Amino acid sequence: MDTSFRQFRLFSFAIILASMVTSIFTVIKCFNLVSNMKDKIYVLANDKAIEAFATDRKNNILVEAKSHIKAFHQFFFTLDPDHDAIKRGMDKALYLADESAKKVYDDLRENKFYSGIISGNVNQTIRIDSTQVDISSYPYSFRCYATQQIVRPATITTRTLITTGNLREISRTENNPHGFLIERWTTIDNRDIKTENRR
Predict the structure, then answer these.
(1) β-sheet bridge partners, residue 160
(2) How far apart are CA 51 and CA 170, in angstroms?
(3) Which of 121, 145, 152, 165 is the most exposed place for a label (fewest CB within 10 A)?
(4) pTM higher than 0.70, yes or no?
(5) What residues have CB less than 8 Å from 97, skipping those under 6 apart?
(6) CA distances, 8 to each of 5, 15, 22, 52 (Å)
(7) Mean pLDDT computed over every residue of the chain
(8) Sign of CA dihedral 144, 147, 150, 151
């Protein structure tokens, strides 16, 4: 009887110890899993879950800055002979920049530039060739190199465009998803490269 009781007690102790080890192991694994999941995001696209990873903004600041500059220039310089299309593009562009861009827009509007685009059936597009951003000091300075193509009823003009300015960090919004504001934006070169007659 005494031997049987000792065996039962030893067996019970072994069960309790095994249960405690299993519980501790499960809790540690759960904490590790939750900790790892905090850096993962799943995006649903076409009924498929795609894993995305959360990173510190500093890791992507150069990519986001270049994307912001590209978006601004495309909104500002892509023009169709349609008042509503021009207004939509300018509204989007002016969310991404300060009063330096607004001043250029106002000057062009006062000089009837946009009226000329509409009445002359002119279409203007832009291709960003390269963007240089210096993130070593804040606010970040940039220089954007682009090529414009202006299509008129009789000719196609290709122009070079070089602009410069600074980027300041602001809150992200629906209208400004990168959370940057272009400041002191100026055009330092905008001249014709060639003009061709349309066929």
Answers:
(1) 147, 191
(2) 28
(3) 121
(4) yes
(5) 72, 165, 181, 182, 183, 185
(6) 5, 10, 21, 53
(7) 89
(8) negative
Note the pLDDT tens digit of each residue in 92-113.
999 999 999 999 999 999 999 9
Domain boundaries, the chain: 2-52, 57-197
3-state secondary structure of 87: helix
Q: Structure tokens of 27? A: 């809790």
Distance from chain centroid for Cα 190:
26
DSSP output for 44-79: EETTEEEEEE---HHHHHHHHHHHHHHHHHHHHH-B
Could you tell me which residue, 55 or 134, shows the higher pLDDT? 134
> For residue 15, is pLDDT > 90?
no
Nearest-angstrom CA–CA distance, 128 and 135: 20
**56 has pLDDT over 90:** no
